[in-house]
Write a structure and sequence with these properties.
CATH superfamily: Peptidyl-tRNA hydrolase
Radius of gyration: 16 Å
Number of strands: 7
Structural class: alpha/beta
Length: 211
């Protein structure tokens, strides 16, 4: 069994914000795999899925970002999932808009939800997929920026990245972290048209996410 954690903040007021791209990736996967509606358990919305005969749990913590670890610790303990079979999907201001970066280990890099999970689980050995949301303007508060919605001109690009992220996760499930890194990490969507500059993961079969 594998656990895919999408990070974000619960509630309609946070939909479409930069901090919630992890939730958006789970929604894309859920649509592709035709999963049932989420159930509320362990302070998260959980969905059971199967991809190529592999059992998957999709988890969206409902604790708000900074306390994500409290929820995920409960999920991990209940399902007894090894840390290497967990993938945390989150936003990253240090990456260009739409850029993807998968790593098997490392620090939280300032991402509060990921930091909470690593601290509670007591390890940095949890794979994570970061989705770039760009840096805020100099005069803008960081917290206000990550809680802001994507601009209209940014939506096609971030939607494309969410689809690419979902396709990369399918590679991660089937072929492992190294194979998925080789596909996802070179990608950077073109801000002019939202298409990847260097190709795209080829395994995703689902339709694109709609807003």
């Amino acid at each position: 069994m594998k656990l895919i954690v999408g990070l974000g903040n619960p509630g309609s007021s946070y939909e479409g914000t930069r901090h919630n791209v992890g939730f958006e990736v789970l929604a894309e996967l859920g649509m592709r795999w035709r999963v049932a509606r989420p159930k509320r358990k362990f302070e998260a919305e959980l969905q059971d899925a199967v991809f190529q005969d592999q059992k998957i749990v999709l988890a969206a913590p409902q604790t708000f970002m900074n306390l994500s670890g409290r929820s995920i610790q409960q999920v991990v303990q209940f399902y007894q999932i090894p840390f290497g079979d967990i993938l945390v999907v989150c936003d990253d201001m240090n990456l260009k808009l739409g850029q993807l970066r998968l790593r098997p280990t490392g620090s939280a890099g300032g991402q509060k939800g990921l930091q909470s999970i690593l601290q509670v689980c007591g390890t940095e050995g949890i794979p994570r997929l970061r989705i770039g949301v760009g840096r805020p303007p100099e005069q803008m508060d960081v917290s206000a920026y990550v809680l802001s919605k994507f601009r209209k001109d940014e939506v096609p690009q971030i939607d494309n990245s969410i689809r690419n992220a979902a396709s990369g996760i399918e590679i991660w499930i089937r072929d492992g972290t190294a194979a998925a890194m080789n596909v996802m990490n070179p990608l950077l969507t073109d801000p002019k048209d939202g298409h990847p500059q260097d190709g795209h993961p080829k395994d995703g079969q689902g339709e694109g996410k709609k807003k």
